[in-house]
Amino acid sequence: MRVHVVSDVHGRADALAVAGQGADALICLGDLILFIDYDDHAQGIFADLFGRDKAAEFIGLRTQKRFDEARALSAALWATLDGDPREHIERNVRAQYEALFAAMPTPAYLTYGNVDLPRLWSDYLRPGHQVLDGESVEIGGLRFGFVGGGLRTPYRTPYEISDEEYAAKVEAVGEVDVLCCHIPPALPELLYDVVARRFERGSEATLEAIRRIQPRYALFGHVHNPLHARARVGRTECVNVGHFRGKGVPFVLEW
């Protein structure tokens, strides 16, 4: 059995269209849309609406953790547009989802990332796409559990939830052979992004479940440029499957 795993697609419909070649199934760990691009300030919804220079200014403030100033800049820019800012965001998100789900191979097992809008996914799913969040499924004789979304941060991305709600989803998954999450378990070496020069949030609940259940693998994304892409917790191999937008290549899991 061969499964390809991707995470942090962020608009790469071109690479997504071929990500399942040679695999029995594709697993996608979320973050499909590209709202803002820290590497190329001209890309993403924010730059499409307000231009590269304003995107660069906004990114600079967030990188410096000047969140109040970043929110003030964002609010001032949204105020220049006609109508409700949420309508502008949703229109652009829908355009990306339409292209991404059309490119998504089948069969595919998906969960949400922290920048996704779960309520919109059902409008674009095709036959052969199965969304799981706090649920498990058998693939090729192994049990795969899925936990989507992220924990709350100062960045206030769309699908951030409380620690308690996240832990409940981890608990609901139960005993699995492969645990698939968008965010990593709370191991510092897996959370530090060497380019952004900051720690992302990881899940203590996921780490505790890994220690207790000892699945074969714990797969995740979220940290685009991790200090370490792998770590072992007992018998469990914890693996960052890679920044798909940047690399365009899936992680391969075979058994």
UniProtKB/TrEMBL annotation:
Domain Calcineurin-like phosphoesterase, residue spans: 1-226
Gene3D superfamilies, per the entry: 3.60.21.10
Any one Pfam family match given in the protein's UniProt record, by short name: Metallophos
Stated name of the protein: Metallophosphoesterase
